[in-house]
Amino acid sequence: MGGRCVGNIPAIAGKFPGLCLEDSPLGVRDTDFVTAFPTGITAASTWNRTLIRLRGLFMGREHKGKGVNVALGPMMNLGRVAQGGRNWEGFGAEPFLAGETAYETILGMQDGGVQACAKHYINNEQEFDRTQESSNVDDRTQHELYAHPFMRSVMAGVAAVMCSYNLVNDTYACENDKTLNDILKREFGFQGYVMSDWSAQHSTMSAVAGLDMTMPGDISFGSGTSWFGQNLTDFVLNGTIAESRVDDMASRILASWYLLDQDSPDYPSVNFNAFFPLDEATNEHVDVQDDHFEVVREIGAAGAVLLKNDGALPLLKPRTLIVIGNDSGPSLYGPNGFTDRGGDDGILAMGWGSGTAQFPYLIDPLSAIQTRAIKDHTSVTWWRSNWELGGLASAVLEQSVAIVFVNADSGEGYITVDGNAGDRKNLTLWGNADDLITTVANNNNNTIVVAHSVGPAIVEAWIDHPNVTALIWANVPGQEAGNSIVDVLYGDYNPSGRLPYTIAKSPSDYPTQLITNPDPSVIISIPYTEGLFIDYRYFDANNIEPRFEFGFGLSYTTFKYSNVWAAVIPQPDSDSVALEQAWLAGQATPIADGSTTALWLHRPFIKVTFDIQNTGSVAGGEIPQLYIHHPASAGEPPSLLKGFTDIRLNQGETKTVTLTLSRYDLSIWDVVAQGWVKPQGRITFSVGASSRDFRLEGTIPL
């Protein structure tokens, strides 16, 4: 603490300029003239690698332009608990999707010149008592689910990893030898440095367990004490900690600094003050926004998921239109009226907490709709109250279209909003939303619902109402929220977003629930007894019908899949023949440095090729998804996502798509052999439009 950034490494005169560490995963926090990008969950909902990487690139450039060395993101915890407060910062409830989104984000950010920091490592899946809970996870589940996005981050060359507040199997994550030294540094071959979350360090011996950098440096904020500093020096002098380990800590930090060319004399100096943003002496008001609003708008549209459409969309110059709900307009207090966005009034474009940024402006849906109405000669009116429903029925009666905007918010646990201490109290939409929607639908036969939500919500109260003609799940899309949703509503952007999680019919359908404890002095035990079976994996294994399945999303056009085939990809490189043959024979990968990220394990091995035709009346984008199915003896969920891409097709156009699988993609973790192994038996695959909409099937040719 004490510098101009949320985290600071002091300079060494004439040798090292120091480091600035700054939030957040969606933009530069605590400063002005920056872009408020779409949230991680919105980026993941695009399933579009190009847009995801471009978002990362522009965030990286903005951080660098402000003089930041280390951007504290991306966040890639898995949303194990649907109510989890920070799920919107991450990339959904599927390790493969989260891993690919993290990979592309990091490549983009670091191409922009800033060090990326993968967080929160690991099992930080709820806000309640996050410093007083032990996530108790078996080894196979840890490897196949929660560690996977971090493994992909290492493969992307991530500079830093942030260890989390919680305990893992009764040992704090920032001094956990198994997760830090063995899995991350040995098995994944991570060459960067591990930093603590703020005050997540608990001892000097954490250095031996793999912690390289303590943040913000003092044991508690402003204490002037440190587990490192003189304590670390003393431990080296008395032989408790080897001096070579301290050399390793420093080398890792400097290696990342050099990797991003931050030793260049042209690298910008810090030009803002995170703690005193109004101090003119330390805030230079450098504008780093460029034209990044354009990609914000596109991602907001591409990440919107069309869940229901009875022919109501796209809108075609409606004669009259009423816009309903508090979420449709601006907040009474302005876009930054709540500290760290810790309030819910007006359009919801990001959650709350340290994972936020200042809005330079915020386009609300009502304003954007009225701009479109001028062009279409549509008569527009509105009803902003969610609670005063007495006159609403008559207000919507004669309207051609009634669009109801609702939301659900969450954030970090240091802020409580409407009784929600970070995590959501329940999975209902906020602000009397169910009654609001039902009142409108009972009185208007063309009711369209738009939900800006941080995660899943239960929609059973109205989803089957015959007058609810469409539902768009618009996520939390950043500063261009209004323009993004208007692009989708009017068909300027044909929706191609897909759900990054499952929307259930009941909260009890999910395999895991928020665990609370009235005694803050007791460490909560959170057993991950569901193992591999989270989200759609659990629903599939237990034959539970979701309301909307993982990977689901509609379009304004239709697509036909055909002509699938699978083949082994010829491999001219013979360097790894013995390892590949051993894997094919069912032997586990050897225990070695970098064993999980070995090239031979991850290079393309099988290609799955198929055709997609746009059979509808307009151009549009499709997200073909590849799932594999292991034999029952493997103990895996019925279906596992292992590939996806995005494809744009004109009316009537056909394209051939190829998705590849690596040996890693086809493997499971062997807890005895401590390696990746091909399960015995036949592995099959399906290609389709969601986790429950398979169009083509085949067998992996092994």
Automatic annotation (TrEMBL):
Residue stretches spanning the membrane: none
Source superkingdom: Eukaryota
Catalytic activity: Hydrolysis of terminal, non-reducing beta-D-glucosyl residues with release of beta-D-glucose
Enzyme class name: hydrolase
Domain Fibronectin type III-like span(s) in chain numbering: 622-691
Record keywords, A-Z: Carbohydrate metabolism, Cellulose degradation, Glycoprotein, Glycosidase, Hydrolase, Polysaccharide degradation
Biological process per Gene Ontology, one example term: cellulose catabolic process
Pathway annotation: Glycan metabolism; cellulose degradation
Any one GO molecular-function label of the UniProt entry: beta-glucosidase activity
Signal peptide: none
E.C. designation(s): 3.2.1.21
Cross-referenced PANTHER family: BETA-GLUCOSIDASE (PTHR42715), BETA-GLUCOSIDASE F-RELATED (PTHR42715:SF2)
Family the UniProt entry places it in: Belongs to the glycosyl hydrolase 3 family.
Protein name (Swiss-Prot/TrEMBL): beta-glucosidase
